[in-house]
Automatic annotation (TrEMBL):
Family: Belongs to the damage-control phosphatase family. Sugar phosphate phosphatase III subfamily.
Name recorded for this polypeptide: Sugar phosphate phosphatase
Record organism: Catagonus wagneri (Chacoan peccary)
A Pfam family that the UniProt record links to this protein: ARMT1-like_dom
Enzyme Commission number(s) from the entry: 2.1.1.-, 3.1.3.-
Domain Damage-control phosphatase ARMT1-like metal-binding: 22-421
Keyword annotations: Hydrolase, Manganese, Metal-binding, Methyltransferase, Nickel, S-adenosyl-L-methionine, Transferase
Record flagged with keyword Repeat: no
Record gene name: ARMT1
Catalytic reaction equation(s): L-glutamyl-[protein] + S-adenosyl-L-methionine = [protein]-L-glutamate 5-O-methyl ester + S-adenosyl-L-homocysteine; beta-D-fructose 6-phosphate = dihydroxyacetone + D-glyceraldehyde 3-phosphate; beta-D-fructose 1-phosphate + H2O = D-fructose + phosphate
GO BP annotation list: DNA damage response; methylation
Length: 443
């Protein structure tokens, strides 16, 4: 699966790196928080399921404590045991990781193996722990923090929905260059929405308190790669050349729920009302993932919350968005591939059906940091390597990563740009302060 000549994977082997610190500090913190959440829901489990609920809570907690212990003592990564649709694929991938090691390295381990693999594995093991603990097997240990992020971002969400619905009134009459300006605004809103993920803060709250629309100008200098123009050219060209009955499909591979999801839905709403797209397909996660990632429950919950809001424009957004779903102009989809550990260059082999579906898109937007890591294989690329090369053969359709930087990986920079940033701001790659719109594909 690995092509010769590819750089090494980011890994916990590099003591002091962000990968190392994540495995050492942040992941155990996330596990502790999950255990604590289960504890706090004890009474709820009892009310719902009686003694069986209490026993299940104990079991899930003991499985998660065991997992935390395995991690902290750098034990070998063990195969998954509970038979689910993706179990065999996971265990095959574990064997593949084993095959990459020298005899002397022994088995894949937390601090030895690629960071992307062990971090994904951790979330999959949390899922397994819950699955092994019926009747609380459908409990999402991260749901509470995702919802909290939504509630704590109310002010900013209100401002966004208001901006959006005001804009809708005039969108039909906008001149071409005004439309482009508004398109760039919603793109940037969606970019900075990615600052608020919860796994970076170890599951602690990370909401958006201010009106993001007013901050866009100030944030512009922090966009390191800005291919918004290419996105405009591509979609405005689709709009101009499309026949009456034909479609323009944009796929958004979603990242976090809560505030970020609102920003993505605002973008998707704009795509329809501006006619830059005729349909939007969203992909979410099938299991709770990287703390704040969107599942179908989160997606439906958020739209319902907006719909029932007392605020006129928020509820209007909720109603309109529900309508887009009913009429099929918005389609929510999921696929098990998104919660596998594979890099995207393996998609055509591991999930050919998903790859074929993505090929039908006119444009694919990949939201967030984890998607970027999977697009580029989470490898130690030089900063100046072209994005196209780092994608390592993954080109189902024109695509764009919209991401704030939260991992030590960035490609496609100008010569010297990365080195300069490193000299002036040692943490520039991991704080979520910088962002990119990085496009690949013919126009
Ligand atoms: O735990 C670290 C990490 O994988 C980082 O790459 C990133 O900070 C986060 O999790 C996920 O970020 P996002 O929600 O933007 O994909
Ligand atoms: Mg995420």
């Amino acid at each position: 699966m690995v092509m010769a000549g590819l750089p090494k994977s980011l890994s916990g082997q590099d003591v002091g790196s962000f990968a190392y610190l994540t495995i050492k500090d942040r992941i155990p913190q996330i596990l502790t928080k999950a255990i604590d959440t289960l504890h706090r829901h004890k009474n709820e489990f009892f009310e719902k399921h009686g003694e069986k609920g209490m026993e299940a809570e104990k079991k899930a907690i003991s499985l998660l404590s065991k997992l935390r212990n395995e991690l902290q003592t750098d034990k070998p990564i063990v195969p998954l045991v509970e038979k689910l649709v993706d179990t065999d694929t996971w265990n095959q991938y574990l064997e593949y990781q084993q095959s990459l090691l020298n005899e002397s390295d022994g088995k894949p381990r937390w601090f030895l193996s690629p960071w992307l693999f062990v971090e994904c594995y951790m979330y999959r093991r949390i899922h397994e722990a819950l699955i092994q603990s019926p009747p609380i097997d459908d409990f999402d240990v991260f749901k509470e923090s995702k919802d909290q992020n939504f509630f704590e971002s109310q002010e900013s969400i209100t401002a966004l929905c208001t901006h959006m619905k005001e804009l809708m009134k005039t969108v039909e009459d906008l001149e071409e260059n005004q439309l482009k300006e508004e398109f760039f605004k919603v793109l940037q809103i969606s970019l900075w929405g990615n600052k608020c993920d919860l796994s970076l803060s170890g599951g602690e709250t990370s909401s958006q308190k201010t009106n993001i629309v007013n901050s866009l100008e100030d944030l512009k200098p922090f966009i390191l790669v800005n291919n918004m123009e290419q996105l405009w050219l591509l979609l405005s060209n689709c709009k101009k050349t499309r026949e009456k009955s034909s479609i323009t499909r944009v796929v958004i591979v979603l990242d976090n729920s809560g505030f970020e999801l609102v920003t993505d839905l605002v973008l998707a709403d704009f795509l329809l009302s501006s006619k830059l797209a005729t349909e939007v397909h969203f992909y979410g996660k099938m299991i709770p993932w990287f703390v704040s990632d969107t599942t179908v429950n989160d997606f439906n919950w958020l739209i319902k919350q907006l719909k029932h809001s007392n605020h006129k424009w928020m509820s209007r957004c909720g109603v309109d968005w529900e309508n887009h779903i009913k009429t099929g102009r918005w389609v929510y989809l999921d696929h098990i591939f998104w919660t596998l550990p594979h890099e995207y260059s393996a998609m055509s082999q591991v999930a050919p059906d998903l790859h074929a579906a993505l090929q039908k898109a006119h444009l694919i937007l990949f939201k967030g940091d984890l998607n970027y890591r999977k697009l580029t294989g989470d490898r130690k690329w030089e900063f100046t390597i072209p994005f196209h090369e780092a994608l390592n053969g993954f080109h189902p359709a024109p695509l764009c990563s919209i991401r704030t930087l939260k991992a030590e990986i960035q490609v496609g920079l100008l010569p010297g740009q990365g080195e300069q940033l490193t000299a002036s701001e040692p943490n520039w790659l991991t704080r979520g302060k910088y962002g990119i719109f990085q496009f690949d594909g013919p126009l």
